[in-house]
Amino acid sequence: MINLAARDVLHGWGKFLFTGIGLGLLIGATLTMAGVFRGMVDDGQVLVDNSGADLWVVQQGTLGPYAEPSSLHDDVWRGIAAIEGVAETGNAAYLTIQLTHNGHDLRVMIVGIEVDRPHRPGAPRYLTAGRPILQSHYEAIADERTGLKLGERVKIRRHDYTVVGLTRRLVSSSGDPMIFVPLKDAQEIQFLKDNDALVNERARTAANPAFNRPGVPGLLEAAQAGATQARNVNAVLVRLVPGADPAIVADEIQRWKRLTAYTRAQMEDILIAKLIATSAKQIGMFLVILAIVTAAIVAFIIYTMTLAKVREIAVLKLIGAKNRIIAGMILQQALALGVIGFLVGRIAAGLWGPAFPKYVLLLPQDAITGFVIVLTICALASSVAIRTALRIDPAEAIGG
After folding, report:
1. Of 72, 255, 299, 317, which residue is most buried, by most CB within 10 angstroms?
2. Are 191 and 112 in contact (CB under 8 A)?
3. Residue 330, C-beta contacts closer than 8 angstroms, at least 6 positions apart
4. Interval 3-34: pLDDT, tens
5. Cβ-Cβ contacts under 8 Å for 278 (sequence gap 6 or more)
6. pLDDT for res 46
7. pLDDT value for 228
């Protein structure tokens, strides 16, 4: 029995191949969108994993430090460290800023960490080159995606920092690469005002009669000195002793310290379910639209190809071919087009994915799911062409 799909591919292989490539590019765009969503989820999980913390203690009633602003005094860790089950604490400050380096804009997350011990919670868990931060000022560890090199100097707000170490895949929930600096420097970067603002603030304080009382010497100086100190952090990261229950320790912190403490599961929920919820819905809508467009294109292609073979199908009917044979041949052609399109799309997504500014994560299970969906769409789309083919009159084989 003549296989109509194989015959059409052999006689018009160029047209069939280029049609498959065009369909493949559309499928590649769909796979890339799914990879962008997976990358956003992975960024959130990487942020949680690389912090090395079991609990995140933040300002009461906030979703900080990543989803909402949070401000704590940098000495609250003392009381937290005394709670049973706490093994180690680490102050941390986070701030996303825009840098200009070598004439290029660079958006990064500045992370302030305590540098007295290299493995405190919040510090990078591994380095790909260089050494940990040893000085209390003006040294930095940068993620490789920043493009910074060892020994290079980068200006962050008022000061220049020397890159002493490099790390990899340490990004914010938005995919911005991280730069780690000593905590004191990060506090100045985030909380300390610039010189002009300080001058204005001192003048405003001096003009306030509440702080500039004639009979209270030293009050004005104390008020002005307080405005030039940066003693806040965004969170205290807590590492627990082995076997400690995170939920119980978090409850103790919230009960006695009037702060909010999140476990690892709760922080993952904040980063993945809440922070990227809108973006996830938007990507989901794009995927649905792309799936509909793919189905429409496949249906149009298969329908057009079937109309071009009306005489051949009529001949098959005239010599006694059954409807299921004709339908099977058109279905095979649609599935073959889907297989070519998927292979081209998967290869294209793998090639252009690394060039995207955001992390694109292409998982094998997503590829398998996509393959099944593509074949299903092709099968459903071929139903229109099959219905048309079955209505062809065998007399057209001799009547034209």
Report:
1. 72
2. no
3. 4, 5, 302, 306, 382, 385, 386, 389
4. 656 766 677 777 778 888 888 998 899 899 88
5. none
6. 86
7. 65
Of 297, 291, 334, nearest in space to 31 by CA: 291
DSSP string, 121-144: TTS-S--SEE----SSSSEEEEEG
Prior bond to 242 cis, omega within 30? no
Going by C-beta distance under 8 Å and a sequence separation of 6 or more, which residues neighbour residue 103?
none
CA neighbours closer than 13 Å in the CB half-sphere of residue 239: 16
Q: What is the per-residue pLDDT for 80?
A: 93
Q: How much of the chain is in helix, strand and coil states, percent to nearest 5?
A: 55, 20, 30
Distances in whole angstroms, Cα of residue 321 to Cα of each of 40, 318, 326, 355, 371: 53, 7, 7, 51, 31
**Residue 113 CB-density burial (10 A; 0-12 exposed, 13-18 middle, 19+ buried):** buried
At residue 227, the pLDDT reads 65
Rounded CA-CA distance 192/171 in Å is 24
Tens digit of pLDDT for each residue in 147-174? Answer: 999 999 999 988 899 999 999 988 888 8
Q: What is the dihedral of CA 261, 262, 263, 268, to 10 degrees?
A: -170
CA 105 to chain centre: 20
Residue 240 parent element (H or E): strand 235-240
Segments of the chain scoring below 50 in pLDDT: 1
Q: Any idea of the CA torsion for 106, 111, 112, 115, to the nearest 10 degrees?
A: -110
pLDDT at 2: 52
Q: How far apart are CA 10 and CA 12, in angstroms?
A: 6
Specify the amino acid at residue 131. Answer: R
